[in-house]
Task: inverse folding
């Protein structure tokens, strides 16, 4: 109707026919701008990624025939309102997508198949969110999305566990090369040369400056640590400004006896059994450590990346503590109505959420971006996914004999990287919406 009225106005003024052509072009352009975003919510990515197939890998790294489902669209499933972190585990007979013989990145202590774990069903599950689907990580999609970018894992060995899972999942397309600036295995960097994508790991089990006070001693014979709760751990805080994504996590090391320092003086401890030192519990140290870590990130003027908090993954010791015969021998996941987050696990989780929200609010004033990768429920439901005694040979004398903290690879934490890919897709959607709301959108079409 509007077009006809405008045409009539043009004729009444005796405008040449070219005016009609210009008006038609404008109309078609407006239709284009309206319809295209509806069909391609992630237009900020290369259009070929929205097709059913992914870039074809080289013959040496071609996908297995079981993995045809990985060539799915990059679209967000069902809608933005779905909480991908709440759901159930369902059987997945296509898994695993790598093995301990096809991936060199598996740490010995998580190499459950090498050390004789007899069952394999723990590898054959996938996470099903309530109300939508979570696609299994497509390595070609992932690498294309992060082309020219960098990702750092900051935390303890469980964070390293996730990084090794990611390397194994991406190995179906490409292996990275080691570009570490130090021989120290606690600080590693790899680059995917085809994609100019760098991945790094920074070891910081307490997130803040710390040192071992008594080597392999203390009340639990696992060492006694000094934690400087108000001081940055510069081994990572001075290195992350260049990264586009930062995944920070931590938790299990705070069970170890520790002495807490603030303003260069002792303020208390956790189970240190030192004379005249108040036991403030591990939760005091945990909260202060995350608060300081987030403060460090917010203080970095040149850090423009996205900080992702990966929430606490509960251990699954049963019939005793980790150092008193506890073990994890279950062979299938819990249903969500069969267990609940409580006790120490709940306290750790709530501290993380509270400190995250405070950091997010403070960081927003400085243009910082925070995202939450809530792996706690999915991890809580997987008592079957730990190495138990299959992270070493039976005759070996190791500190964590029955390991119910780390995760077998392949195993449940491969799903943490499914979460990561979906979050990166959502970042693309956010960027697209921001672009539509800005005046720059005319330049992009």
Result:
């Amino acid at each position: 109707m509007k077009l006809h009225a405008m045409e009539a106005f043009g004729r009444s003024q005796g405008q040449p026919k070219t005016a009609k052509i210009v008006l038609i072009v404008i109309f078609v352009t407006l239709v284009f701008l309206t319809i295209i975003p509806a069909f391609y919510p992630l237009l900020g990515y290369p259009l070929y990624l929205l097709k059913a197939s992914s870039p074809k890998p080289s013959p040496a790294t071609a996908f297995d025939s079981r993995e045809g489902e990985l060539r799915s669209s990059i679209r967000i499933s069902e809608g933005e309102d779905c909480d991908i972190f709440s759901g159930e585990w369902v059987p997945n007979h296509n898994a695993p997508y790598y093995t301990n013989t096809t991936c060199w990145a598996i740490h010995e202590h998580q190499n459950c198949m090498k050390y004789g774990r007899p069952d394999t069903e723990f590898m054959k599950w996938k996470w099903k969110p309530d109300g939508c689907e979570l696609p299994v990580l497509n390595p070609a999609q992932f690498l294309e999305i992060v082309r020219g970018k960098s990702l750092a894992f900051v935390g303890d060995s469980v964070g390293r566990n996730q990084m090794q899972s990611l390397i194994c999942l991406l190995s179906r397309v490409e292996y990275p090369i080691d570009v570490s600036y130090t021989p120290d295995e606690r600080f590693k960097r790899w680059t995917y040369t085809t994609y100019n994508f760098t991945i790094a790991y920074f070891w910081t089990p307490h997130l803040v400056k710390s040192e071992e006070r008594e080597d392999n001693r203390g009340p639990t014979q696992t060492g006694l640590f000094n934690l400087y709760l108000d001081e940055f751990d510069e081994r990572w805080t001075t290195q992350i400004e260049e990264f586009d994504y930062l995944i920070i996590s931590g938790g299990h090391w705070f069970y170890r006896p520790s002495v807490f320092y603030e303003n260069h003086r002792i303020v208390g401890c956790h189970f240190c059994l030192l004379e005249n030192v108040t036991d403030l519990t591990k939760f005091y140290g945990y909260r202060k450590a995350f608060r300081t870590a987030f403060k460090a990130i917010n203080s970095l003027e040149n850090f423009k990346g996205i900080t992702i908090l990966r929430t606490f993954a509960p251990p699954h010791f049963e019939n005793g503590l980790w150092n008193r015969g506890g073990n994890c021998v279950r062979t299938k996941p819990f249903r969500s109505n069969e267990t609940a987050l409580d006790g120490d696990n709940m306290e750790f989780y709530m501290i993380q959420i509270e400190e995250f929200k405070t950091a997010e609010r403070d960081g927003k004033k400085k243009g910082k971006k925070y995202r939450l990768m809530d792996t706690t429920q999915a991890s809580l439901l997987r008592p079957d996914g730990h190495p138990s005694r299959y992270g070493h040979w039976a005759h070996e004398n190791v500190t964590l004999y029955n390991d119910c903290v780390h995760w077998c690879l392949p195993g449940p934490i491969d799903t943490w990287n499914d979460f990561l890919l979906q979050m990166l897709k959502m970042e693309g959607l956010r960027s697209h919406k921001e672009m539509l709301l800005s005046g720059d959108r005319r330049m992009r079409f």
Observations:
- The two ends are 26 Å apart (CA to CA).
- Residues 1-16, 31-79, 440-445 have pLDDT under 50 and may be disordered.
- The CA atoms of residues 74 and 384 lie 31 Å apart.
